[in-house]
Amino acid sequence: MSDLSPNELRVLVAVAEEQSFTRAGARLGMTQSAVSHAVRGSERKLGAVLFERGRQGARATDAGLRASTQARHILRLLDSMGSETRGAAERTVTGTVRIAAFRSAAAGLLPEVLDRLAALHPGLHPQVSIVRDVGRGSAGEVLDANADLGITTVPPTSTVPDGLIFNRLYEERYLLAAPAKAADPRRLPLLDWSENCSSYTRRWWTEQDWLPERRIMVEDDSVVLSMVAAGIGMAVMPHLTLAAPPEGVSVTDLGSTAPTRHLGYVTTPALARTLPVRALIRELRAAHAR
Amino acid sequence: MSDLSPNELRVLVAVAEEQSFTRAGARLGMTQSAVSHAVRGSERKLGAVLFERGRQGARATDAGLRASTQARHILRLLDSMGSETRGAAERTVTGTVRIAAFRSAAAGLLPEVLDRLAALHPGLHPQVSIVRDVGRGSAGEVLDANADLGITTVPPTSTVPDGLIFNRLYEERYLLAAPAKAADPRRLPLLDWSENCSSYTRRWWTEQDWLPERRIMVEDDSVVLSMVAAGIGMAVMPHLTLAAPPEGVSVTDLGSTAPTRHLGYVTTPALARTLPVRALIRELRAAHAR
DNA sequence: CGGCTTCCATGAGCACCGCTCATGCAAGCG
DNA sequence: CGCTTGCATGAGCGGTGCTCATGGAAGCCG
After folding, report:
1. Which of A34, A80, A255, B76 is the most buried (most CB within 10 A)?
2. CB neighbours (10 Å) of residue B171?
3. Are residues B247 and B187 in the same domain?
4. What is the DSSP letter of A195?
5. Are residue B67 and residue B130 in the same domain, yes or no?
6. At residue B158, does pLDDT exceed 60?
7. Does the beta carbon of B123 lie under 8 angstroms from any beta carbon of chain A?
8. Number of domains in chain A
9. How many CA atoms lie within 13 A of A59 on its CB side?
């Protein structure tokens, strides 16, 4: 009987996040003493020191970090059990599903998906968080148990972190976005943004017989778009970003050799079996089919 | 407090598999009565009937089937927590960590750190990007999510951008770099470079009884170094830049009043809780201790 | 240096939870 | 009908996990 009770899990998470026994206790509505006892008990059960106690509170050790992340995962599953089982009985999908997505997916893809989802499952409450699609991206959110499903562009396949499952949704083309008024958009500077994963478009550029004269780095893809609308330059952007181009932006297909990227989702095996996540995945796939 | 205890989860799994309260109890080493109580409690907590009781035992309902599946997942995670956390120390950290550093840190400090990191965590892939330590510097890279951790010199403390955490690594002395052949290096022009944060050395200069006759601004600290080697001038440079001085450069300590700068790192609170970043920070600290 | 504050640790005491035990009840079966 | 085989239920009890009170270590500050 060496596994931790839900309360102990909650304590671990709270302490890891608050970096203090006292604050964690306050947050959970229990005394500092109870937290201390609980942590001590958890450490004994797990056989590792989970927090370094010091003058300024408690910092998670590596073991503590792992444990608290795992604890978040477990608590999430425990939390979903109620709606999950009730849903099975009543044939409804209820509860919460937390989605992490990068900005353009959230703007271009999710509204439709969430509309359908809301229509089909009134009791399901999706939560969307925006994550920059760089670094660990949305997969990191899923790994840390901050999200149930992440929308992501295809990572180098070697990089799919263990413990996650990844599936492709569809392939997405890049298009040319230029000011509608521009006579020869190719003479305009190219607007690029940091999130634009180089490998997708860079390779394509090397095969082109024209190159932009200037390149302007911009913070964000939405800024790129409004700059295009203002006539400042042109850009090669994924279809999703251009789903609803603003006034004054003309979008041109780049032909069959256009650069593409793959869109997909990540989640955990356990979450992939839950009703809300399954319903969401179904709608993500359906959205593309239409 | 509506989530199930590990014991209740075990009971659900056992009953679902044994299709009998009595046998489930026997398997778990408890009485049939306890099983009955536990199942009843679970059903109340989840708000659904999990088993159909009948003459020939208990059959899981749809809800019960789903609950017991979920329970198996959770128990598996709980079970793995022990080994997972115990092994945290020896376990290899995997993933990617993106480091932004200014040139001399990348050249003088990182090789050693990355060597150690590679030895300890073969599955961890560090990526280094060189950033000029002016303007927002490496903190900007972290802010823009282009890097997970930035090596930086101490900013004016008021300037730590919110959302970032900054920590000092160590204090670094400035040294005098002069051509080895120079009879009196103090007569040579002072080579300065734009990245050289004025405040560190300017104050020191005001306290000196000698002043350089001329001052030459150079693009970059590496250029400064090769110009010193060529006998063009002398320079006051941080220790890191002079870690491996080229032929013909003699390095002199400036004594206890030497100007210093503080080296540190910036990252975000969320990233600071991830294992790759923590492993990196640990090695950064260890590198100095040696 | 000594009081003060701010952390966490620890022991005693108590309440409640979850177990067992004993028993009840329903349904099939000779 | 008893008898068997299943689950349900209430009483009672022990251990777990909480609070309360207190202790100890470590910075901080005049």
Report:
1. A80
2. 12
3. yes
4. T
5. no
6. no
7. no
8. 3
9. 10
Instruction: With CB atoms and an 8 Å threshold, state whether B85 touches A70.
Output: yes
CA of B53 to C1' of C27 (A): 12
Residue nearest to nucleotide C21 (CA to C1'): B33
Rounded Cα gap, residues A66 and B279, in angstroms: 13
What pLDDT, on the 0 to 100 scale, is given for residue B89?
62
Mean pLDDT of chain B: 81
Q: What is each CA distance from A163 to A194, A271, B77, B103, B199, in whole angstroms?
A: 28, 11, 11, 36, 49
Task: Check whether A103 has a pLDDT greater than 80.
Answer: yes
Best of A76, A81, A267 to disrupt the B interface (most B CBs within 10 Å) is A81
Contact A172, A240 (CB under 8 A): yes
Position B157 pLDDT exceeds 60: no
Q: Is residue B208 part of a domain?
A: yes
Averaged pLDDT for residues A107-120? 93
State the CB neighbour count (10 A cutoff) for residue B162: 5
User: Within this chain, do residues A55 and A160 fall inside the same structural domain, yes or no?
Assistant: no
Confirm if B164 and B183 have CB atoms less than 8 A apart.
no
Residue B195 domain-assigned? yes
Q: Domain range spanning residue A275?
A: 93-170+262-289
Nearest-CA distance B144 → chain A (Å): 8
Residue A200: alpha-carbon gap to chain centroid: 20
Same domain for A130 and A10: no
Best CA proximity match to B91, nearest among A162, A41, A203: A162
> What's the Å distance between residue B92 CA and nucleotide D28 C1'?
40
- Inside any domain, residue B1: no
Residues contacting B123, CB < 8 A, separation 6+? B92, B93, B94, B95
Last residue of a domain, one of B59, B86, B113: B86
B164 and B282: one domain?
A: yes
CB-based contact A62 B4, cutoff 8 Å: no
The residue among B275, B269, B10, B123 whose CA lies nearest residue A70 is B275
Q: Which CATH number covers residue B200?
A: 3.40.190.10
Look at the block and give the residue holding tokens 């040294």: B175
| Pair (A14, A63) in one structural domain | yes
